[in-house]
Structure formats: structure tokens, C-alpha cells
Design brief:
The chain has 185 residues and is α+β, with helices and mostly antiparallel strands. The chain is built from 6 helices and 4 strands; from the N terminus they run H-H-E-E-E-H-H-H-E-H. It has a domain of 113 residues: Tetrahydropterin Synthase, Chain A, CATH 3.30.479. The chain starts with a helix and ends in a 33-residue tail after the last helix.
Amino acid sequence: MLKLLLTGVWVCAVTLGSVYFSMQYASAPAISDAEAERRASEEYVPGEIITIPVIEDGAVQGYFLAKLSFSAKREGIAKLHAPLRQLVTSELYDMLVGSKFIDVADTGSFALADFKLAVKDGLNGKLGGEVITEVLVEQLEYLNKEEVARAANGQAARYEKPAPIVDRNGEVASDKLPEGAVSAH
């Protein structure tokens, strides 16, 4: 009986020791005071999805969809005359409509880092100082005129064959549809 009690105490001690040391080594990495101060002085500003017409030869060739968010300095935001989100959206339209940031004919030449830097520099120039510290890309898409027309007419995109929905047992779920429901395949 004493042997069993000592074994239990030993197991508890080893468990507590391993938990203590694992917590010491698993703690978050220390950040410098300068980095912590920089993070405290910045604010994340979520962007809106904007649709920018791509104009070539006097006609709309397609639409560039973008959702950009920003990291901005709090003191710079406080000095603005309007909400930053609306100012940024307006300035993005001014910068990107009709510009050659996006050359859809040559997709291989698009450099995301250059695009982000140009947006950051352009916005800071329009906002009158170093307000935007980082541009975060959440979505970038291009739709040509045919894709837009197909979506406007309610036509689905061209897909090969729809994949059946399978339940947890590996059975096709559409075989178990309630009466009156329509199967997708």
C-alpha cells in the first residue's frame, strides 16, 4: 500500500514538473519594446470590396475586384476630416480607374509587392503624410466582360460535372432527399 502511495506522489510530481517546464518554453516569444510600441500606435482598418472597371481603347474590358485592408497610425487617423475607410475607398478609385497598375493582357507582369507599395505610397500622398503603414490584400480578382454577362444572365460558370454530396457513412446524400426536393445531379 505504501508503495502504491509513493508511486502516485511520484507520478503527480513528474506531471506537475513537466507541465511547468512546458509552459515556460511554450510561452509567446518576447517582442521588443519598440515593436510593442509600434503595434500599440497602429490600428487595423478593414477594407471594402471595390469593383474597378478596366478601361482599354475607350471601352470597359472587364472588372478588377479588390478587397484591401490597411494598418494605419492612430494619430494619423485622428487628424483626418472623414472616416479613413471611406477616404481610402475613394482614393483607390481615383488611383486605379484608368491607370496601368493592372495590365490584364499581361498577367505575368503583375507584381503584388509593387502593387501594394504603389497603393500605400499613393494613399499616403493623398492623405497628406505617413498614415498608412501596411497594405493587406484580402482579395484580388479579374472578371472579363463575358464572365460578367454570364453572371448577369444567371448562367453558372462552366463546370465539368458537379460532385455529389456524400454523408458521413459514404452514401450519396442526394439519394436521401425529402420528397419533393430536387437533386443537383
